[in-house]
Amino acid sequence: MAKTDRVLRVLIATDTYPPDVNGAGYFTHRLAEGLAGRGHRVHVICPSDHGDPYVTVNGGVTEHRLRSSPIPLQESMRMAVPLGIGGHTARLVARLDPDVVHVQSHFPVSRTALRRGRAAGVPVVLTNHFMPDNLYAHAHLPQGVHTVAGSIAWRDMVRVASAADHVTTPTPRAARLLREKGFARAVEAISCGIDLERFHPRDEDRAAARARFGLPDRDTVVFVGRLDVEKRVDDTVRALARVVPERDAQLVLAGTGQRELELRALAAELGIADRVRFLGFVPDEDLPLVYATGDVFAIAGVAELQSIATLEAMSSGLPVLAADAMALPHLVEEGRNGFLFPPGDVDVLADRLRTVLGPDGRRRAMGGASREMALRHDHRRSLERFESVYASLGATAPTPVRVERVVAA
Q: Which residues lie closer than 8 Å to 346 by C-beta, 6 or more apart?
């Protein structure tokens, strides 16, 4: 049962939810199931995963799936059809009478739920997972308009967030970024959290895990995530090509994305096609085994507000090599659990790979430090903090307000 004195009715609104594969979707799913597991009544409103609207119960969480259509130029994800979101959300808020509405972005489903919750006098929490860099590739915007588009997107984000009662982000760096973009109120950093029991060191399972995925028994670099532009997986492929002449190493990629064909072609061009292994989509229940195959986790992206995958790798006892950008430096203590490298500097990344893939003793010590650092991000602590936020807002629920100028359904 929860740490609060009563069962809470929580309505979570999100524009991305499994089977979507991204950090925001995973966080929202784990938040919903975690709260339900602690005895709360949790409802999620999100786009349908196949088009038609429906309601279902998964893991104690009631999902209200809105009619959806494919996102243009991004067929693997769907967006809620704008027509009807407002009315459906208003009816849901009225029927459920939630203690709190928790929205996960400033996109249509979330902003509409924020508006309807505020109008009904329900406290609203907003968690920001947004980085414009994660949208550029999907929107296929020319490089020259990135700055202007990012500025417009941030202003919109700040306007929407300003209507919430409490705003959170996954890390202090993400909170600072939001303030730098013009958000004038307090922002609380609450870690996305990690299930330390699911993701734990499995050295004894390494051989079996590699066999499970058909991997040779070599020094193994792991990456879990989308194979999209902002993840810069090509940097890791290029670094591996510099290491392979000296070490029997391979790169294991778990995930799909727009750049998969380019990455395969790059590996072939560099003569390491047999050293870059593409696992494709890996179900959540099998992810612990992916980390078990590895000797080190490498992430070259520059748009991470926390990186759940990096936390999972750390909790699994892997050293970390990460680009020195955004929130990733918060997860690396230089020389203790891994190393940072300048974004895009393939030579430094390759040198760091040689270091970590050196003596087994160093590798084990770094992996142990990663696990120790991951203990700070126990998902139960995150759940308890969100419970406390919900309960405190419920004690001082706002009066109904109109926010038509700030956010539109």
A: 235, 238, 239, 242
CB 381 within 8 A of CB 193: yes
The two beta strands, 68-71 and 74-80, are antiparallel
Q: What is the pLDDT of residue 135?
A: 58
DSSP annotation of 323 reads E
- The residues, any chain, with a CB within 8 Å of residue 358's CB and separated by 6 or more, are none
Q: Is the dihedral of CA 171, 172, 178, 180 positive or negative?
A: negative
Distance CA 390, CA 114 (A): 15
Q: How many CA atoms lie within 13 A of 331 on its CB side?
A: 35
pTM (two decimals): 0.86
| Pair of tokens at residue 268 | 């072939």
Chunk the chain into consecutive blocks of 10 residues (it has 409) and report each block's average pLDDT, rounded to whole numbers.
72 94 90 96 96 94 95 77 92 96 95 96 94 57 62 90 96 91 95 94 96 97 94 97 97 94 98 98 94 98 90 98 93 96 97 93 94 96 96 64 36
DSSP, collapsed to helix, strand or coil, labels residue 120 as coil
SS3 334: strand
The CA-CA-CA angle for residues 148, 151, 152, to 5°, reads 90
Token couple for 407: 């956010």
Task: Please report the pLDDT score of residue 144 as a whole number.
Answer: 57
| Omega cis (within 30) before 343 | no
CA dist 394 and 122 (Å) reads 8
CA gap 348, 97 in Å, rounded: 54
